[in-house]
Design goal:
This protein is an alpha/beta fold and 271 residues long. It has a single domain, classed as Rossmann fold (3-Layer(aba) Sandwich), CATH 3.40.50. The chain contains 7 helices and 8 strands. Strands 3-2-1-4-5-6-7-8 form an 8-stranded mixed sheet. A hairpin with a 5-residue loop joins strand 5 and strand 6. Helix 1 runs parallel beside helix 3 and helix 6 crosses helix 7. The longest helix has 15 residues. The two termini are 20 Å apart. The relative contact order is 0.13. It comes from Corynebacterium glutamicum (strain ATCC 13032 / DSM 20300 / JCM 1318 / BCRC 11384 / CCUG 27702 / LMG 3730 / NBRC 12168 / NCIMB 10025 / NRRL B-2784 / 534).
Amino acid sequence: MADHAHNLRASFRKGANGKQKPIGVITRGTTGVNRLRRFDRWCFHHPKIRSLLDATSLALDVGYGASHTTTVEWGRWLHRLQPDMDVIGLEINPERVLEPQNGVSFELGGFELAGYTPQLVRAFNVLRQYDVDQVEAAWETVTSRLAPGGLFFEGTCDEIGKRCTWITLNSDGPQELTLAWDPWGISTPSDVAERLPKMLIHRNIPGEKIHALLAAADLAWDYCAGWEPHGPRVRWEKAREMLIDQGWPIAVSRRRVGDSLLTVPWETVAP
């Protein structure tokens, strides 16, 4: 189960001189190679993201932590889409700010986005360390600074990236929830619940929408056990088809991917 015993608080107010200071608090900053690969792959193949990027685009990775690894990996994927776009990692801890490398720059900054107006922003494994009552303030701080049509992805994952979840937001607020996992890395879809974003992780209880979705996913997964000889990926595809037939508004990518994915509109799971 995710550890939330050390919840942090940030000030979203301006400094005494009226200038915007970096917003956030220093987190543990643990990371690892390919930890965010499921998001990176999803991002690379998403048609809306592809259409959003051009040579003048900017992507910010907020709170990359003690290692630049995941920021560089994301930059590598994004540069396959648009070689000339800028990718910048922001960290509130000055000691973690590095010299540019592997086509990615690093600067001091937090949820105020260091004064930038980017097309893409992501913040993974950051807000899960904050108090839940600060999540919406962080969302608003970021989304109010996006370029027109820009997107913000706020999520979390486990230490080795087998289970990953994120919320897609735009200037109007949260739009979608996506759950992504290694098909061979879970026993039931609800195993992903331990890595839900901060806004939802404590809502996985009877009577809440996210609990209903995960319970339905588990039931469909059990019903499709006969497909297991074809592998867990096929079994999940059949389970997802059953959920769609039941009326769950699940988005399905036109391109078949190796990860198991479950994407629903935010109102389907909103607290």
